[in-house]
């Protein structure tokens, strides 16, 4: 249980020789859990200040041959959706790609229903990641503590510019992903295709006056969303209104 006096030290930053990969690049609090993304591509879940529920190695460093540049593995944004049962759907993103993971307890359902569950917290085993990454056809399976992860989908190069936010609608049916110039709309149950709903790219880059910094759905309406810009403005849009109107 979290209280307003809890202080969590999830990186050993008191050391003078800490590794830059321990740096936190994303944090959110949802469903009474603290979710943390790190510079080394790891995603962690804390149920309380003393218990790390799981740890997932989502992204790794890659090289973009078209741009001749490295793509860092750091987690820049994430969205967590409860699947209505014993599993969660994790949407995790670095600067260029979005991965969809199914997170569930690696315990028989009968034991979960009967509450015969003993969840093992994650221990500090540095070699665990290499041992638990198992190729399985087109998917990856990853185990951490009492949890199992299946990679359901990976979308690369859907955003040409740096991804800066992910956010789901109230009913969890839709997902927004945005970069500096575009906002895409996804159906969370089918991540094969995205629809571009906002595009501020000018004809000439010299005419670019601002960029998109974040996008979010309205907290009580699935059809209304907003996005902020580098000009300090917040624009509100309605998916039910045609762009030509």
From TrEMBL:
Secretion signal, residue range per the UniProt entry: none
- Gene Ontology molecular function terms on file: protein phosphatase regulator activity
Please verify whether the record's keywords include Repeat. Answer: yes
Report keywords, A-Z: Repeat, WD repeat
| InterPro entries in the record | PP2A_PR55, WD40_repeat_dom_sf
Q: Give yes or no: UniProt keyword Repeat.
A: yes
Q: Which PANTHER family match?
A: PROTEIN PHOSPHATASE PP2A REGULATORY SUBUNIT B (PTHR11871)
Kindly provide the name given to this protein in its UniProt entry.
Regulatory subunit B of Ser/Thr protein phosphatase 2A
Q: What organism does the record attribute this protein to?
A: Hamiltosporidium tvaerminnensis
Its lineage reads: Eukaryota, Fungi, Fungi incertae sedis, Microsporidia, Dubosqiidae
């Amino acid at each position: 249980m979290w209280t307003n006096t809890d202080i969590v030290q999830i990186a050993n930053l008191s050391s003078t020789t800490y590794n830059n990969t321990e740096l936190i690049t994303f944090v959110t609090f949802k469903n009474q859990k603290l979710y943390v993304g790190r510079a080394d591509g790891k995603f962690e879940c804390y149920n309380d200040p003393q218990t790390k529920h799981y740890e997932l190695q989502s992204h790794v460093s890659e090289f973009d041959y078209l741009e001749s540049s490295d793509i860092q593995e750091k987690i820049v944004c994430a969205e967590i959706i409860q699947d209505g049962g014993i599993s969660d759907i994790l949407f995790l993103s670095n600067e260029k790609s979005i991965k969809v993971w199914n997170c569930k307890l690696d315990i028989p359902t009968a034991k979960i229903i009967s509450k015969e569950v003993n969840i093992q917290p994650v221990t500090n085993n540095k070699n665990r990641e290499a041992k638990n990454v198992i190729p399985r056809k087109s998917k990856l399976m990853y185990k951490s503590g009492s949890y199992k992860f299946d990679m359901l989908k990976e979308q690369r190069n859907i955003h040409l510019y740096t991804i800066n936010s992910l956010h789901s609608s109230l009913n969890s049916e839709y997902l927004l992903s945005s970069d500096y110039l575009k906002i895409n709309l996804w159906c969370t149950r089918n991540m094969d295709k995205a629809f571009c709903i906002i595009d501020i790219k000018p004809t000439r880059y010299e005419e670019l006056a601002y960029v998109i910094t974040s996008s979010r759905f309205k907290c009580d309406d699935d059809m209304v969303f907003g996005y902020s810009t580098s000009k300090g403005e917040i624009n509100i849009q309605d998916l039910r209104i045609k762009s030509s109107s």
